[in-house]
Amino acid sequence: MLQLFYSITKFIPYDCYQDVFSINYNKLYEDGKRIILMDIDNTLIPYDQDLPSPKIKDFIEKLKKIGFKIILFSNNGYNRVSKFSEACSLPFINNAVKPFGKGYRKALKLAKSNNLSEYIGIGDQLMTDVLGGNRFGIEVILVRPLKKRSEKWYTKINRINERHVLRKLKNSHSEIYKKIEGIYL
Ligand SMILES: [Mg+2]
Predict the structure, then answer these.
(1) Rounded distance from Cα 128 to ligand 1 centre (Å)
(2) What is the pLDDT of residues 161-180, one digit of tens each?
(3) CA-based, 20 to 30 A from 13: which of 50, 118, 137, 166?
(4) What total of structural domains would you count in the chain?
């Protein structure tokens, strides 16, 4: 099982929110965050949609106005990710292979910054978004997945591993566990 290879602390998100809209982005900016590595599937849109809603487009414009550089950062393939990204006029990394380092290294080049403290990840999965960011040294905000039932088979496997991680967290880090429980369970 994946989680046995990593310390349980690698699964601890920076914070947890019900959705991407609830995050205090002005505070993140004040805290020195400048670059957002934003997951797409089940974070911005469910799997059964392929384009951003007007609400998502407005939201992205709002983030740009605050001063953030946004990179859409997805494990999904080129066709889906490029179509969505073009509709948002944002740069993207597809096949990011979260939780592994390859995509993060690409992101550093794309954003032209090696200062990891400027980055914040946002995503809906402990096993890819949170673990990947923490392994690389980038903090990650966890959000509630938009639609659990539409998840792909490999995401369902991650969800099984996730339950093991959550049981461990419940024993060792009960405060953050309660936060995650509030959005996940
Ligand atoms: Mg996702």
Answers:
(1) 8
(2) 888 899 999 999 999 999 99
(3) 50
(4) 1
How much distance in Å is there from the Cα of 123 to the middle of ligand 1?
6
CATH of the domain at 60: 3.40.50.1000
169 and 12 Cβ atoms separated by less than 8 Å? yes
Q: What is the pLDDT of residues 12-55, one digit of tens each?
A: 999 999 999 999 999 999 999 999 999 999 999 999 999 999 99
Q: Which amino acid is at 137?
A: G
CA of 31 to the centre of ligand 1 (A): 25
Q: Provide the residue range defining the domain that includes 145.
A: 2-184
Phi, psi of 54 (to 5 degrees): -55, -35
* Torsion angle of C-alpha atoms 85, 82, 124, 154, degrees rounded to 10: 170
